[in-house]
Write a structure and sequence with these properties.
The complex is a heterodimer of chains A (about 140) and B (about 70). Chain A is an alpha+beta fold and about 140 residues long. Chain A has a single domain, classed as 3-Layer(aba) Sandwich (Glutaredoxin). Helices cover about 35% and strands about 25% of the residues of chain A. In chain A, α2 links the parallel β1 and β2. Chain B starts with a helix and ends in an 8-residue tail after the last helix. With about 70 residues, chain B is α+β, with helices and mostly antiparallel strands. Chain B has one domain. The chains are: A alpha+beta (about 140), B alpha+beta (about 70). At the A-B interface, β4, α4, α5 and β5 of A face α1, β1, β2 and α3 of B.
Amino acid sequence: MLSDTQRQQVKELLDDMVDDVRLVFFTQSFGCETCGDTGRILRVLTEISPRVSVDEKNLVVDKDDAAAYGVAHAPAIVVLQRAADGTLVDHRIRLLGAPFGYEFTSLMDAILLVSRGGPQLSDASLALLAHVTSPMHVQVFTTPT
Amino acid sequence: MSLAFRMAFASPHITATAVEVTEFADLIQKYRVNGVPKTVVDDRVEILGGIPEDAFIAEAIRERMPQA
């Protein structure tokens, strides 16, 4: 799944985590080619870092949870921060599709962002974002390479 | 990708989703994904390719800016 070198690289990144991160993983029993491998790679992350945990949900069985997080496809990963007081904080960061290749880098970015709270946007960017006062959905489509 | 995540992290109104589209033919069709990365904001605004932070955010929120 990950080579020894890749494992070491991932460990070095995750060693910089501050808060724990909970990955809510939505899987599906049928018609999801990459759900099995996605579950496996997420379990590898929990082996590498005690700060990462996975909560596996079924898209069909746990449909209320899926609706609450706005998830309609599997595999999907919702990246939550576990704050110092133990509460889970949703920063509205999700990944859809298998976390391989480029998407794996995105997953690592998301984990570190939620755990460490940075790097931040520029002051100019934050000023622009202040104009967003109602729900906005930004979807970024990629392929593995 | 990390830029969209940081937007969500910074604003309580923004949700960011990274979509690896290969296995979602319905999404490829719905959002007419011919090249990547492709960003779609609120199912309307489309941003192609990777562009610098300030230009990306300006484009993403263009429809929400007060009209001059």
